[in-house]
Design brief:
It is a single chain. This protein is of the alpha+beta class and 119 residues long. Helix content is 15%, strand content 27%. The protein contains two helices and seven strands. The strands form three sheets. A three-stranded antiparallel β-sheet has the order 4-5-6. It has a two-stranded antiparallel sheet with strand order 1-7. It is globular and about 35 Å long. The protein starts with 8 loop residues before the first strand and ends with a strand.
């Protein structure tokens, strides 16, 4: 609807997420560079977490379309504004036990986190 982010901000597209991962050295290391350090919010081990980007990614888990909440503390997922076929959209995924940040597509019926990007 265009009302998810405040005026002057938007949900990043999948290519905009790729700009971030490329800038930080690629998908294989970006997760560590965006994750909050320590294990207050992330489960141990919080592999590779330095938060040198200042992003401070937190492991909010997700809400499955069946209504259940899963993976809080271990996983973080952030929507992109880029849709894929079949009522799916791309998102970025972080896991406590890895320092990568991968791109996947998931059902738009699921609830993932959103990070707004300034226009």
């Amino acid at each position: 609807t265009g009302k998810l982010c405040p005026d002057g901000w938007h949900v990043p597209t999948n290519p905009e997420w790729t700009i971030l991962t490329d800038f930080l050295g690629g998908e294989s290391v970006t997760g560590g560079k965006v994750k909050e350090t320590g294990v207050i919010h992330w489960e141990s081990p919080n592999t590779g977490a330095t938060n040198e980007s200042g992003f401070t990614a937190l492991p909010g888990g997700y809400r499955h379309y069946n209504g259940g909440f899963y993976s809080m503390g271990s996983d973080g997922m952030w929507w992109s504004a880029t849709e894929s076929p079949g009522n799916f959209a791309y998102y970025r995924y972080l896991f406590s036990g890895a320092q990568n940040m991968r791109s996947y597509d998931g059902s738009q019926r699921n609830g993932y986190s959103v990070r707004c990007l300034k226009d």
